[in-house]
Amino acid sequence: MVDWFGAESGAGDDERLAALYDLDVRFDDPAIDWFRGLARMTGGPVLELGVGTGRVAVPIARDGHDVTGIDRSPAMLARAERRAASAGTSLRLVEADVRSFALERAFNLVIVPFNTFLMLAPDDRWACLARCREHLAPAGRLAVDVFQPDPEKIAGVDGGVREEWRRADPSTGRLVTKYSSTRASVDAVTFHWWWDEVADDGTVRRIGRETTLHYLYRREAELLFAASGFELDALHGDYDGSPATSASARLLIVARRRERGSGRERRRR
């Protein structure tokens, strides 16, 4: 079994990591409304890659759209299903790899939120984008949300250990503390996260994972999407619609499929 980090895990660790993900993230993130707005513009059906526990997919489904989500973690998918049911809606959920998925339908909107695209190594991005392109309806859109690195900020925390937060887990009542450490280069940053949970008898259980996020810069994004058979509709630097620059904290990419024969496409051998 693979957890959401891509590591081999038992069912217990997969479920605990999915719960810790929900304890860690914001459910009022401005990205959620940005993707909901795109869904209103394009209509459904909507496909989310890396659906996680459904914090984007469920609000879009509640807006009345037909939503499919794929993820490699069974525990994440199970939590997404429960979240949708609690919200009075439903999702179609598929356990799959974003580099190789194959679904028997096309989508008006394919979304890749919350830096999921950065978890792909540069060579794997081609495979993911090829799958996205093949699953887009002719007038469909692909939307990707990633951060752009701030070199000064990264250098300031590189190698250090930081306590990020202490929170009570509402499902257990136990205190959880999250720590992080990073190692960065010009191409990527590797995060080491670990969570300490205090049991009722005072013992501490620790679970940790490591993941590498591969940077994507504005100019690189323009070249990558064009070479992968897309035309850019928009390249924003924030959720307010401001244009992306090399100094923007985020890259919000909206692209359409370029039909074959309408321009040069990258040929790989």
Please outline what is shown here.
With 269 residues, the chain is of the alpha/beta class.
Number of helices: 7
The rounded distance between the terminal residues' Cα atoms is 32 Å
Identify the CATH architecture of the largest domain.
Answer: 3-Layer(aba) Sandwich
Q: What Rg do the Cα atoms give?
A: 19 Å
Average residue-wise pLDDT: 91
CATH superfamily of the largest domain: Vaccinia Virus protein VP39
Highest CATH level, the class of the largest domain:
Alpha Beta
Helix content estimate: 25-40%
| Poorly predicted residue ranges | 264-269
Strand neighbour order, sheet with most strands: 3-2-1-4-5-11-10
Number of domains: 2
Q: Give a quick account of the main beta sheet: strands, pairing sense, barrel closure.
A: 7 strands, mixed
Helix and strand composition category = alpha/beta
For this structure, the CATH topology of the largest domain is Rossmann fold
- Which term fits the overall shape? globular
Sequence of secondary-structure elements: HHEHEHEEHEHEEEEHEE
Strand content: 25-35%
Oligomeric state as shown? single chain
- How many E-type strands? 11
Detailed description of the structure:
This protein is α/β, with parallel strands linked by helices and 269 residues long. It folds into 2 domains: 11-147 and 217-257, 3-Layer(aba) Sandwich (Rossmann fold), CATH 3.40.50; 151-214, N-terminal domain of TfIIb. The protein has helices at 11-24, 30-42, 57-62, 74-86, 122-134, 151-157, 218-227, and strands spanning 46-49, 67-71, 92-95, 107-112, 136-147, 161-168, 175-184, 188-198, 204-214, 230-236, 250-257. Helix 1 (11-24) packs across helix 4.
